[in-house]
Amino acid sequence: MANKSKFIDYIDEALEKSKETALSHLFFIHQGIPYPITMCTSETFQALDTFEARSDDIVLASYPKCGSNWILHIINELIFAESKKKYEYPEFPILECGDPEKYEILVIFRNPKDTAVSFFHFHNDVPDIPSYGSWDEFFRQFMKGQVSWGSYFDFAINWNKHLDDENVKFILYEDLKENLAAGIKQIAEFFGFSLTGEQIQTISAQSTFQAMRAKSQETHGAVGPFLFRKGEVGDWKNLFSETQNQEMDAKFKECLAGTSLGAKLKYESYCQA
Ligand SMILES: Nc1ncnc2c1ncn2[C@@H]1O[C@H](COP(=O)(O)OS(=O)(=O)O)[C@@H](OP(=O)(O)O)[C@H]1O
């Protein structure tokens, strides 16, 4: 994250607002989806209606807690390796709308159980962000899609329609964990960056959870160590009850069984093993 001060200023401001916000007052609804009033405004959505992308823009789509900061870091390193230019964010780099046809889009997914657990910890660990009464309460809201940025499953159902589009590249968090260098190579190839094996190895070393967590205060400010919390696959086993497992398994089946995305998420390996 190059232009750190603006990036961190934005996060700090959102945290400052969160301090005075009760969970029951956290959301405003835009087109049926809850967004946190501490980070999004209806004016931003309105302004984005007339947003025009440049043909070489890169767009990343992610449900919260699926690894968006991980991918942003990798993209920055790839751009730096290719062009020797450190990308400077003029603003906080999250766009909520726009015409996806104009971009090459990376979409990162993570299994829904670990995503929910990461999301719960973020709310309840960061002192200034409104907490849920318990994991069970968060789980109920997550399953109803009544959390910030709405339903994981609706997000997944919508992206399932676009996975095979030419301008879309799917990345799975768990695959990246399994083989970071291979994932970085695929991302580089998708964007047409021609890097040496050595450059890919260097970026891999800088993109491990430990390396990013060590720099998290510098890159993300006070929230850094909470954002880069654990970075593991299977942490859901520490919180999910048997009933919650069954409920999530049934929801996955209902929404994604037999779909292209359903297969790509490797649910049996990461959520049932
Ligand atoms: N390098 C690397 N390796 C492995 N895992 C990583 C990495 N970087 C971020 N993470 C984990 O991604 C989770 C946060 O996701 P996001 O960055 O999408 O969060 S946010 O929605 O922008 O708040 C959060 O997951 P949990 O640790 O399970 O909470 C981060 O730790």
UniProtKB/TrEMBL annotation:
Residues 103-259 form the Sulfotransferase domain. Its EC number is 2.8.2.-. SUPFAM superfamilies: P-loop containing nucleoside triphosphate hydrolases. Keywords: Transferase. One of its GO terms (molecular function) is sulfotransferase activity. It comes from the Eukaryota. Pfam families: Sulfotransfer_1. The keyword Acyltransferase does not apply. The keyword Transferase applies. It catalyses: 4-ethylphenol + 3'-phosphoadenylyl sulfate = 4-ethylphenyl sulfate + adenosine 3',5'-bisphosphate + H(+). Belongs to the sulfotransferase 1 family. This is Sulfotransferase. It comes from Neovison vison (American mink).
